[in-house]
TrEMBL record:
<comment type="similarity">
    <text>Belongs to the UPF0178 family.</text>
</comment>
<dbReference type="Pfam" id="PF02639">
    <property type="entry name" value="DUF188"/>
</dbReference>
<protein>
    <recommendedName>
        <fullName>UPF0178 protein B6N23_05905</fullName>
    </recommendedName>
</protein>
<dbReference type="InterPro" id="IPR003791">
    <property type="entry name" value="UPF0178"/>
</dbReference>
Length: 149
């Protein structure tokens, strides 16, 4: 049984609730890793891991523990690339699959936008988490869990 790994530092609460319900329903281990304690219900399947404070400490912990075939839920593109290199599957909290075919282009675009912001260009931020995002994520997670049981 694969494990769900959640980059919990930036995971929207509604996505966290979807993951908790899915882990309970399918008896799938789910680890929420963050630089702080994440409020989670008592569960046999859902666990939290608070790591030491520090830049990328949670990311490093996930990369160290993730196994081939596990699913990482994150929007952090460098973390996603590291997990893909370890043969894990990756999904954003909007239900988008990240894989070896699209991750490099996404990281390059992120780096380009970061350079633009550093030069003073106003590029805006990510759009808000909508009901459509919630549905897409829930459906994508359900499909992944059904396929990987």
């Amino acid at each position: 049984m694969p494990t769900l790994w959640v980059d919990a530092d930036a995971c929207p609460r509604v996505a966290r609730d979807i993951i908790v319900r899915a882990a309970e329903r399918t008896a799938t281990p789910a680890w929420f890793v963050a630089n702080h304690a994440v409020p989670l219900p008592p569960s046999r399947w859902v666990k939290g891991l608070a790591v030491s404070q520090g830049f990328d400490a949670a990311d490093d912990e996930i990369v160290e523990r993730i196994q081939p075939g596990d699913l990482l839920i994150t929007s952090d593109l460098p973390l996603a690339m590291a997990a893909i290199e370890r043969q894990a599957k990756v999904m954003t909290t909007r239900g988008e699959a990240l894989n070896e075919n699209n991750i490099r282009a996404r990281v390059q675009m992120r780096d380009f936008m970061e350079t633009m912001r550093a030069s003073g260009e106003h590029t805006g931020g990510p759009r808000g988490y909508s009901d459509a995002d919630r549905r897409e994520f829930a459906n994508a997670l359900d499909r992944w869990l059904a396929k990987n049981r």
